[in-house]
Amino acid sequence: MKDVEELILKINEIKPEINGVVRERLEKFRSFEKLDDKFWFSELVFCILTANTSAEMGIKIQNSISPEEFASLSYEELRDRLKSLKYRFYNTRARYIYENQIYAGRIKDTVKSLEKDEKRNWLIKNIKGFGFKESSHFLRNVGFFDYAIIDKHIFNLMREYNLTDDIKINSKNYIILEGILRDLSKIFSMSLGELDLYLWYLKTGKVLK
To answer: Which CATH architecture has domain 4-30+147-204?
Structure first.
């Protein structure tokens, strides 16, 4: 059975190969500090769209629908645009985006005004379509790196390397799983947000966002 020591070796092996790409991604995330609400809202929409689909599909849609459109289109317009882009959950996700438009002009200031734990809790409570994973994903992508993005790829990797024997991710064990990954990140002196990029690459062969 694989264990954490083998995972540590794997990460050390790939670090020279993808370190440059990881650095670029982290700088891109940090650059959100200089961007306004419409770009933060567009990233929030990206994180809604990737749930139960793929990052590639989320990127495709984000490149096809502008930040201004995400913040202003009607539910029907959003639904039709998502459907035309071959997005599977066009009804539900268009509804989420539309209902979240009330935060499109103040999402940056709202998130920045909150303390660390409050940021994610506020997102989970107030943003339609957001749970722990989506909230953590959004926060990492706008420059807050102390959250674990535990999607199916990361969770399966944790099981593969015997970091957990849980059979699914839920709201009850997410923080425990995050703590396990935080301990792993300390071994490499990197943030959870950075570690996620290395783990995702191990599982998928890609560094996206």
So the answer is: Orthogonal Bundle (1.10)
